[in-house]
Amino acid sequence: MASGDDDDPIIEEIDVYLAKSLADKLYLFQYPVRPSTMTYDDVNHLAAKIKPKQQRVELEMAINTLSPNYCRSKGEQIALNVDGTAYDETNTYSAKMMDKQSFSSIQATTNTSRYAAAVFRKGELHVTPLTGILQMRPSFSYLDKADNKTREREAANEGGDSSQDEAEDDVKAITVRFARPESEQARQRRIQSYEFLQKKQAEEPWVHLHYHGVKDGRSEHERQYLFCQSVDASENSELVKTPKEYLAMLMPPIAEEKVVKPVGPSNVLSMAQLRTLPLGDQVKTLMKNVKVMPFANLMGLLASGTDSTSALRCIQQVALLVQGNWVVKSDVLYPKNTCSPHSGVPAEVLCRGRDFVMWRFTLERSVMRKEITSIIKLPPEDVKEFLEHVAAPRVNRGWEFLLPTDAEFIKKHPDVAHRQHMLWLGIQSKLEKVFNFSKEDFMPKNSPQPEPVHISGEQRLKMAQERAKEKQPSLQKDLDAKRVGSSVHVKQEPVSDREDEPMDTSSPPSSSSVPNGSINGYPCATSPGFDHTNGNGGSPANTSSLELQDFVIKTFRKHFVLTLNEFKRLFNLHLASMPVGRSVFHSISDHMLQDAILLSQCKQIMVPFPAQSTAASDEQKVFGLWETGEEFDKHRRLLYDLFTKNYRVRRNMIQAKLAQEFGDASKADVDRLLNECCSSYAGMWYLKGTIQS
Predict the structure, then answer these.
(1) Quick one: where's region Disordered (predicted)?
(2) What are phi and psi of 685, to 5 degrees?
């Protein structure tokens, strides 16, 4: 190092001072289209103005019209095109000749922290930081003004023939449009648009300046501010640094940026970042990215030691079970108040269409895209996106579900599988109403189906009562034996107004290791306790029938009139709301539901639907609460009798019938009756659930 210092001796030391007087208002002007030897110092500057926030400057400079290089005829022609023949105070060229030119600035750089202007005087270097570096280029805005003048003249010539009276008589229709609420994404696009930026720039007012030449006395005075006003070292602390501080300025330490951690990466998923989130957010983020996944794979992606029960609880909130695999819910992918990126279809419509695709995969391994599109009637791009989430195209087989059926999960978690099955039944009921189809439309048609046998409500009630009488001794015997022999303590729960009975959850002695002789938790026809008459088996069915009957009573005391289709929907919602493992219902058929309704003080109302009705068979089965022990029961029965003669009636007909049977019926009684049992449409009253869409 010593030899190096000797070879490169210090010749002179220069003191450096930081001047701050002009630090916030010093600009460097560059003229890139003009050589440095041809300055504008001696050119007359006519006007100057600035927009400080945008660092935008405009200058007007005079043109020497007496120069031999100036073409007078061209200058006059340009002035004529811009201002026209009429004289006006707003004319650009008052001398009828192009005698000035404009310069407009653009920023050479947005970061001027490394740039400064320096002045050397008497062995001292005085440095002033630059506020902006602007490149001044010729502006041709006068050409735009000339084009506008031309268009105005053409418009005046075209409209000159029509008189003022004719213009007044010309009436134009005005279309009133209301702007829809702007989404956050649309607002961001608007803010970044060229039009918005132009509008924001135009909003800042111009600040007009007075130009002083290079040799002007005011310029000489302002140039003195380029020198540091105080030569005291304490005033220039920015330049007085210790070697350690100076080195830190040259090579600053790498500062850890505090970046807000994203909730879920949009395309690349960092597992280290993911595991810092709560378990529910981890599961949701994984399902949003993967779309479909077996539960075993999900547990492999979560941190080791994660409780499978907690993970199972979380995944049921964001996904649905399809063929033993978990598929992310539609409302997670398409949140409320969003729309399709392909077609702009609202999220609610997208969710219904995607739910239909997922529901089809609960029935079979492959679906046809054309068939899906014909039913949900969404753009092809959206339908393709739905299918790509959960399926892959196969030659001559349509779209096949991505993953094999996970029978192991269904076998290991029958309560979860059953709960998901009930959820799908509820979704199916909604989809049938929206898309006007029935599940039978998609079932295999290889074997001929027997014709349905229509049984009246009275016959069904009689058959149910006979079956109950036949089974009562054996059921009571089994129940007594279990009470004595079972060592399992069962929580007692009231199921109705009658004497409380314990809910037996133990398996019958004749069953095998599979509960209730079922496969994956569902009863099969070969089970020892299976009842081939109404599809249930053994004493567990007795327990479930008591629970079912209690649900029927509570439901009809709340709604009074329900179609079978609507009751099934409410029942499925009830099952879905029960805790995992709590449900005592395993396989409830439509016949069991109807029997339970008829045994709960309800009767079927034989509504004569019109021949052209499109109502499904479940929608044409209407049940009403027959007896509650109130005096008002007779009013309901009279109303039900009216609806056995016509599927819709007028209010005055109901009021007249009540007055005929029970004397003067008050308005409050009629309102209560209609509110409990009916719905109104187009001036007519229908029993609940029977209005045809």
Answers:
(1) 146-169, 462-541
(2) -110, 135
For residue 479, what pLDDT is reported?
Answer: 65
| Residue that has been written with the tokens 């080195």 in this structure | 247
Per residue in 180-207, pLDDT (tens digit) is: 677 777 777 777 777 877 888 888 898 9
548 and 640 both lie in a single domain: yes
Q: Tell me the mean pLDDT in the region 570-575.
A: 86
Amino acid at 656: A
Measure the CA angle with vertex 40, ends 36 and 42; round to 5°.
Answer: 125
Torsion of CA 362, 363, 365, 371, to 10 degrees: -110
Cα distances (Å, whole numbers) of residue 114 to 111, 118, 127, 239, 655: 8, 13, 12, 14, 91
Three-state SS at 338:
coil
* Partners of 394 in the β-ladder: 398
pLDDT tens sequence across 659-689? 888 887 788 888 999 999 999 988 899 999 8
Q: What is the pLDDT of residues 24-61, one digit of tens each?
A: 889 999 999 889 888 888 888 888 999 988 888 999 99
Residue 608 belongs to domain spanning: 544-575+587-687
In the structure, what pLDDT confidence band is assigned to residue 327 with cuts at 50, 70 and 90?
A: very high
Boundary of a domain, candidates 230, 253, 288: 230
Cβ atoms within 10 Å, residue 250: 7
CA distance 416 to 308: 13
pLDDT band at 503 (very low <50, low <70, confident <90, very high): very low
Q: Which of 60, 128, 125 is nearest to 94 (CA)?
A: 60
Number of domains in the chain: 3
Cα gap 539→416, rounded to integer Å? 23
CA-nearest of 225, 207, 223 to 215 is 223
Three-state secondary structure call for residue 165: helix
Share of the chain above pLDDT 70, in %: 77
Question: Per-residue pLDDT for 318 more than 60?
Answer: yes
Question: Same domain for 360 and 423?
Answer: yes
Helices 457-485 & 590-598 angle (0-180, nearest 10)? 90
Select from 440, 465, 484 the last residue of a domain.
440
What's the CA gap between 462 and 442, in Å, rounded?
A: 34
d(CA 74, CA 645): 96
Q: What does each C-alpha distance from 362 to 215, 346, 523 come to in angstroms?
A: 88, 25, 19
- CB contact at 8 A, 65 and 99: yes
- Please check whether residues 364 and 304 belong to one and the same domain: yes
Tell me how far apart the alpha carbons of residues 685 and 670 are, in angstroms, rounded to a whole number: 12
SS (H, E, C) 560-623: CEEEHHHHHHHHHHHHHHCCCCCCCCCCCCHHHHHHHHHCCCEEEECCCCCCCCCCCHHHHCEE
Give the model's pLDDT for residue 301: 85
| 45 and 126 fall within a common domain | yes
Q: Does residue 504 carry a pLDDT above 90?
A: no
- SS3 assignment, position 205: coil
Helices 651-662 + 633-643 axis angle, to 10:
130
CA-to-CA distance for 504 and 173, rounded, in angstroms? 76
Q: What is the CA radius of gyration of the chain?
A: 43
Residue 645 near residue 608 (C-beta atoms within 8 A): yes
Distance, CA of 500 to CA of 472 (rounded, Å)? 17
Residue 246 in any domain: the answer is no
Q: Whole-prediction pTM value?
A: 0.35
Q: Interhelix angle for 414-435 vs 347-363, to 10°? A: 120
Q: What are phi and psi of 348, to 5 degrees?
A: -60, -40
The reported pLDDT for the residue numbered 494 is: 41
Give the pLDDT mean for 633-660: 90
Tokens 């419509």 belong to 349
